[in-house]
Amino acid sequence: MNAMIFAAGLGTRLKPITDTLPKALLPLNGKTLLEYQIQGLRQAGFTHIVVNVHHLAGQIVDYLRANRNFGAHVLISDESDMLLDTGGGLLKAFPLFRAGEPILACNVDILSNISIPAFLSSAKLSDLATLVVSDRPTKRYLLFDEQGQMRGWTNIATNEYRPSLPHAAFQGCRKLAFSGMQLLSPDIITPLREVQKEKGDKFSLIDLYVSVCQDKSIRAYVPDNYKMMDVGKIDQLTEAQSFAQALDI
After folding, report:
1. Spatial contact of 192 and 94, defined as CB atoms under 8 Å apart
2. Which secondary structure element, helix H or strand E, spans residue 207, and what is its range?
3. Which pTM does this prediction carry?
4. Range of the domain at 204
């Protein structure tokens, strides 16, 4: 099975650290964010991993080479010329995946106690995507019906709903926050290309999910006893150190 780590972000919320260091190489307790992700994937049995890069890309490439890819087969999807966001980044990386196999994709800056094997065993490969979500406070939510099928997206701060349907269409839906990990069918290549035609090379996976969720099966996965942290702000680094230390990786 394929894995992809989204590591191309600019890390603007971590400035000035990320002026000279890519976010993926932020150290926590002697390990970088990228190492935490690779080790977690390796523990779950993944050995074929694609990492996309953009900001200070050479540092990430050199770091992986110096550490022998931490024992995994790591391929680089180079977005140095243009940052493509998650959807565009996944599409660019597609030729690097093993053909016909699902893809587990995750954000480099989100640490969690998720059991990846439990997640994989719960997913149905007939679904286009299975998204790790949780019930936590945020401004932007994915909307899921009683069967766990995604129906839309909302920003509660602006009262925006997508797709553009009457608000009654989302009545009874559960608001859940996306946690930066998803299992994708290899068939996602077709809707990725369709969204690219509409939006251009740069687009997010959320854009894709919103565009197909009325017709395709996009499912929620809510882990038991889930704890996660988005390592994204300078004032959170002390908390992030403690969180990372508690992870069994």
Report:
1. yes
2. helix 205-212
3. 0.95
4. 2-246
